[in-house]
Amino acid sequence: IYEIEDSIRESRKEGEYFTIKSLERTKKNREVVLKRLLNDDKKDKVLDFEDLGVDYLFVDESDTYKNLYFFTKINNIAGVSSAASMRASDLKLKCEYLNEIYGEKDQGVVFATGTPLSNSLCEMYTLQRYLNQNMLVKLGIQHFDSWAATFAEKKTILELAPSGQGYRTRTRFVKFKNLPELMTLYSSFADLLPEGTIKVPKPEVEKCTITLKANEMVIEQTKQIAKRADRIYEGHVDPRIDNMLKITTDGKKLA
């Protein structure tokens, strides 16, 4: 909430009145979400986390907590998601509490995962927020927009439309920049085990590709999927009736 309020003040100075309206909506939405998260009606009245005596957290399969909300004014880059899971928000609060106990060392939490980054460059920022927040604050890049300006490079490219029919231009973060500095930050809290470090024998695999010719029904259904995707992309369909997740599922079944 404080980050959004800071951005509203900055936007007022710069006269970005359209941005201010958008930020006000974002602030209101976040207040509702936070109120729901802190709703005592759904919680037991026995002990708070602080009363349990927990002083260390080991989080296995930590990639399941990657949907951590972050605020950004970037709204024209694909792949920058403001998705937020209650599970991730809850873990972030616990991490912040433990980091307050340990102070500058940022200890008290250990993550274990085989896929620290899987879908987006933004996941590197999320990892740093969990495990190295104090350093981000110290460097003045605790807000996503300043972090992205420092370490993420964007590019506008032509890519296949989700429907599989035609192309469209999208702007995405495509690679990291200032990589030596980023890896220095990352290695300050990460122990990496590259492939080949763990001597585990791999089984041999034989891959066979079998190509089948599509029949008329498959071709017709593919066209229908393309039309549905175009209608969704143009905003003509209620997400409760049809959405890209349904289309992806139908496409997989068809394939």
How many strands? 4
Average pLDDT confidence is 86
Shape: globular
Give the strand order, joined by hyphens, for the main sheet: 1-2
Quote the distance from N terminus to C terminus: 45 Å
Parts with pLDDT < 50 across at least 5 consecutive residues: none
What is the ordering of alpha helices and beta strands?
Answer: HHEHEHHHEEHHH
Q: What class would the helix/strand composition place it in? A: mainly alpha
Descriptive keywords:
mainly alpha, two-stranded antiparallel sheet, 11% strand, 255 residues, 9 helices, two-stranded parallel sheet
Describe this structure in words.
This protein starts with a helix and ends with a helix. Strand 3 and strand 4 (about 165-175) form a beta hairpin. It has helices spanning about 1-15, 15-35, 85-100, 120-130, 135-140, 145-150, 180-185, 215-235, 245-255; strands at about 55-60, 110, 150-160, 165-175. It has about 260 residues and is mainly alpha-helical. The protein is globular. Helix 1 (about 1-15) packs antiparallel against helix 2 and helix 8 (about 215-235) runs antiparallel to helix 9 (about 245-255). The strands form 2 sheets. Strands 1-2 form a two-stranded parallel sheet. A two-stranded antiparallel ribbon has the order 3-4.
